[in-house]
Every structure is written in C-alpha cells, then in structure tokens.
Amino acid sequence: MKVRENFNKRGKLLHLTADCRPHGSPKRVAKCDGCHCKKDNFKTKCKAQMEAEKILQQVRRSVEDTGSFNDPSKTPIFHCEQKTATTDENDNIRCCAVHQYLEFEQGRMAIGYLGRGHFDNKVTALNHFAKMKSWLHGKTFAETKIGDFETAKMEQHIIHKRFMLEKSPTTASKKITILQSFCKWAVKQGYLKSNPLGAENIELPPSAKRSKRIVRLSREIVDKIIKHAEPGWQLKIKFAAQTGLRASEQWVLEWDDIDFKTNHVHVRRTRKKDKTIGDPKTEYGIRRLPIGPDMARELKEWKLKQPVQQRVSWRTNNLVFPNAIGGIQDQDNALKRRLYPACKAAGVDATHIDWHSLRHFYASVLIFNTKLPFGTIAKRMGHHDSHFTWKQYGIWWEEGRNDDVDEGVETENAFQVL
Fold first, then answer.
1. Please, which residues bridge with residue 68 across strands?
2. Across-strand partners of 15?
3. Running DSSP on this structure, what letter comes out for residue 200?
4. Which residues on neighbouring strands pair with residue 203, listed in sequence order?
C-alpha cells in the first residue's frame, strides 16, 4: 500500500492518492471473485480499497492537524523479537524503538538524571507490554510499528488489558506511565506527531483513580505498639517511626552510617527486589536525617549489648538491625511475627497497617508538629520531587499545622513523647 502526494509547480499539496493494488503489478488488478493474491493480507480489491480509504482518512487528519504526514511503514517496530531488552550497559540496544529508547535512558542514567532502579523498572514494563497482543491481526504489540499507535486502539487493547493482567492497579498505573514516557520520547524522535497516551487523551479505569488508603497513626497508637512489641523489637519499631526509613533501607543500615557526634543517620543504600544491596533508586534517596538524644542513647546501648551470634558476621555486614544470625532481616518475618502480634497485643486493628505505616507516621509528625518547609519534608522522606510528596500527604498539609509549635522546634524534639 503506497500513499502518494501530488503537488503543483509551486510546491502546494493538491491531493493524496493511494495505490490499492495488493500485489503492486501495473497490469494485474485483484478481483472480487477469487483473487489469490495474499500480499498484506488483502485477497480482494474491495478489502484493499477499504484499507486504502482508512489510510487516506488518517493521512487527511494528520495533514489537517500538523500539515504533514509520517508514513507508519517507515517507523521502527516497538520491540525486536529476536532479542529481549536488557539492563546490561555494555550491550548494544539499537535494533528497535524500545532498544533505542533504553539507550537514551542509559545516557540519562550515566549523568545522574535517572536512577538504576527506575531504569530497571522501565526495562521490565516495556518487556511486559511487548508480549501483549496487538489490535493488528495475529501480531503482538512488539511487532507493531510505532507510527500505527492510535489512542483509541491502545486504550482498548493495551491500557485496559494491562489493568486486567496486573493484580495491583498501582502497578498497572506505573507501567502505563512508563509507556507514556516512551511515547513522549517517540514524538521527539519524529516517529509520532503527538503522544497517543497523553493525559488529556486517555481515560484510565476507575480502579486506577482510587488512591491507596494511607492510615495516619496517632502517637498513642504507635506508643502502644512499641510497648507491646517483643523487647528485641521495640527499638526497631521506634527507630522506623522516628526516622521514616523504608524497610529496605533500615534492614541494611550499618553502624558506620550513624554519626553519634552530631546525632544523624546517613541513608546510603537499600535492598533491591532481587535481594542485592545497592544505591537508592534516585540520588534523592541518599539523605541525612537527625535523631533525638534519647534515640542516640538507645542505639549506643544496643550496640554494646548486641548478641554474640549477631557479632559473628557483624564485622562483615556491620548491620544495626540484623536477624538472629547476623544476616539481613526478612521483611515478611518482621511483619507477620513481630509487628502484627504487637498490634494484636496492643488492641490495635492492623488491617491497614504495615511497616510502611511507620514511615507515614514520621511524615505526619513532620507536617503537624514542626514548621519545616514542605520542600524540606520531601527531602527528609527521600522523594524525588515535592509533587510526589504532595500527592501522598497533601491532604494532611491542607488540614492545617500546629501554630503553637515554636519556630525553632526540630524533628528530634517532636518525637520526645515516644
């Protein structure tokens, strides 16, 4: 199928024509009564003309909107089937649109604009999209030309089906955000005239619009949970509530990360989903947090009385909160065998409580019991921008802050009641 542009002598576009001959021969034309030509899956002249009219409509819309037309057949496919996208920085990833995009993102990662964790998430998400069935008969999304991306078709066959495949609407939303970023890059490359997945173009399922419930724990509830926890776990829970560290950050915290001279904790590493230890997702995850004098004193006491069986590997791992044999604490074990029993003993409903709830409690203290600027709170939380912090906790900020708090109050003073 070929589309030709017809211009006058002055270069003005007069009209567009489409060659609907399925086999391209100037002498033979497909007939409706049994043509056996199967090129481009068009067996009859009727079907070829219908497809040609559909393409002409797309061409007309493109010319009316942008003044030009990009031939979809000249754009790359979404994903090369011969090769799976990889995170290996030494690998050549130029063979298709996804690999070109990942090469671009590797460049951003090299100069610090993108974290390793975010890059890995992009690779995973795009590989998942590539395996989905396309709206084109008998083809996967990987085989689809970038120029064939259309809002209505992608919304029906890709977006909504992604939500059906994922167990969590939040996970599906994150993957769609990555695909939106990919389409934005494709526009800059000239493969697309506009982003078919722009926020103004698509409508997400109702489940994607419901934000996950964030429970705001009171000081009394947190205090009860700490008091009813096992003796060896009281400090771990209290530390999480007073620093806001993610569980993946707390379980790999080392003694060298705690500065007892200035009473600060340095967050430098995290535990990845593949159980390896590395840098946080973004540079903003690396941060310096103050702790109160009481917390510093309890940490010193814990360092001195740390069990011998944990000290066997202490010189190697140097972990502050290891498991019973000195290794990295298992998060499921921390929840099911430690935090939930403490909630039950304290008479607290743990339906919407997990270890991350202690991080939300830390954020609530910063918002309601200090006068720290919102940007500073975002940095303390380790968020990549304050917009994400506002999305999480903006409703708390709008509820109002404690005007009776002294201007000079700091975080460590706000936690003295615990």
1. none
2. 6
3. T
4. none
